[in-house]
Amino acid sequence: MLRLFIYLVHNNLKKMKIIRLIIFHSLVLLFYCQNETYQDCHGTVEGGAYFDDCGDCVGGKTGRYECTTDCNGDLGGLAYINSCDVCVEGETEIEPDSCTSFEYNGKIYSAVIIGSQAWASEDLVTEKYNNGESIVSYQGNDSVGTFTKHFLSENNEKNAIFYSWKVALSDSIAPEGWRVPNKNDFEELITTLGGSSIAGGKLKSSGFTTWDFPNNFATNESGFSAIGKGFRDNSGNFQEVGKKCSFWTTDIAQTNDTTSSYLWNLKLSFDSNYADISPDSTNIGHPIRLIKIN
Q: Are 124 and 242 in contact, with CB atoms under 8 Å apart?
């Protein structure tokens, strides 16, 4: 009887130890579950990262952004809008430097991307402002906006209009999304092409159709296609045709000349590889080359 009693007591003690152990671990587990903190997909406690529609962990402390639909309509795609407002690369099969033409006052202009800039690849030839108002033909007075037409050749009539400085500074001369360049725009263009000592040839049309011989270093590798049109003097005559070409900017140049005002110009020459930015008198006429507003 005594042995039975000892056995029962000993056996119950073991059961009680097991029960106490179960209760202890249950309490620990309950405590852990009540105090467990949330971890996001990046492993950050109480973080804000989450899985986006592409299945990537983004946001929070990941440093990554949610995938979106690109300009080509592809979720998570790599296509983007370039400087010429064209959707390129990704799955588009369109080259990144592709550029479209634009229409202005009944004329289609081609365009080209050079570095981070988009330029018209031909000169402005409109005889009207963007509000439909006609530009006055030059009659020897540059106090108003004027234009002068010169026929370089039958095939190049479209490239032979010279504008007064008043037109260059007008807010109404360019179509929507485009403008007359300033001095900084031309400086960036020249820098993109390797500097003033070598940029000229890259900007000039090659050959001798619109430039006189020798048209040094002219490759037009930029696609800018500058033509040697010369300029219109204050008497209305055309000078340096085939030898020089200048483009108005919208920046006034400060000089010691008290009898005339000046604007900065980009200047190219048939016998040089230089692209020069220097002042020119507002008494003469030059072409206008438009740049796209970014």
A: no
Rounded to two decimals, the pTM is 0.74
The answer to whether residue 57 sits within a structural domain is no
Residues 163/126, Cβ–Cβ less than 8 Å: no
Share of the chain above pLDDT 70, in %: 83
Read off the pLDDT of residues 186-222 as tens digits, 9 standing for 90 and up: 999 999 999 999 999 999 999 998 899 999 999 999 9
The rounded distance, in Å, linking the Cα atoms of 161 and 89 is 37
Total number of domains in the chain: 1
> CA 1 → CA 4, 6, 11, 109, 174, distances in Å?
5, 9, 15, 116, 116
Query: Considering the domain boundaries, does residue 274 fall inside one?
Result: yes
Residue-range definition of the domain harbouring residue 188: 102-292
Q: Which amino acid is at 124?
A: L
Pairing of the two strands 231-232 and 238-239? antiparallel
Give the pLDDT confidence of 167-186 residue by residue, as tens digits: 999 999 999 999 999 999 99
Give yes or no for a contact between 248 and 288, defined as CB atoms under 8 angstroms apart: yes
Residue 23 inside a domain? The answer is no
β-strand partners of 265 = 248, 278
Report the distance separating Cα 280 and Cα 284, nearest Å: 8
| Residue 142 domain-assigned (yes or no) | yes
Cβ atoms of 220 and 132 within 8 Å: the answer is no
